[in-house]
Amino acid sequence: MKQIKSYVLDINTVKDPRGCLSSLEATQDIPIEIKRIFYMHHVVTDRGGHAHIDTDQVIIAMSGTINIRLFDGTNTEEYILNDCTKGLYVPRLTFTDLYDFSPDAVCLVLANTHYDMKKSLRNMHDYLEYINNENHE
Prior knowledge:
The structure is a single chain. By secondary structure, the protein is mainly beta. The protein has one domain (7-133): Jelly Rolls, CATH 2.60.120. 7% of the residues lie in helices and 46% in strands. The protein is built from 1 helix and 12 strands. The chain has one helix spanning 124-133, and strands at residues 7-10, 12-16, 19-23, 36-41, 47-52, 57-63, 66-71, 76-81, 86-90, 95-99, 106-111, 120-121. The protein has a 5-stranded antiparallel sheet with strand order 1-9-6-11-4, with no helix packed on it. A 5-stranded antiparallel sheet has the order 8-7-10-5-12. Strand 7 (66-71) and strand 8 (76-81) form a beta hairpin. The longest helix is centred in the C-terminal third of the chain and has 10 residues, at 124-133. The model has no long low-confidence stretch (mean pLDDT 95).
């Protein structure tokens, strides 16, 4: 049985009397080269609801709480992100739903590609059709 290849990663964090400093280095601390960074805040409804054909991402809850559901066509995994020293690696071709954002949630996303809407599957029907009709391993 195929398994979703997502996982939670620890973000390098140094704490001293002044506070905390967290850092990420592409391809060293996270498994991707960063080509795009975006963040969501003041979210009032669910986000995601799509999959990227060629984009791998790392999702970090910089503030607040975010619930994430991942689906690979067979398996579903759910995560609660609420610690800015943890990131969730989400590989390409994983259908992703983000939901139940707390009012103070800020969601940072690091991606290994530039944005191209034509390279995303914007609904479950298109996603299932794509993964069932192509060999993507």
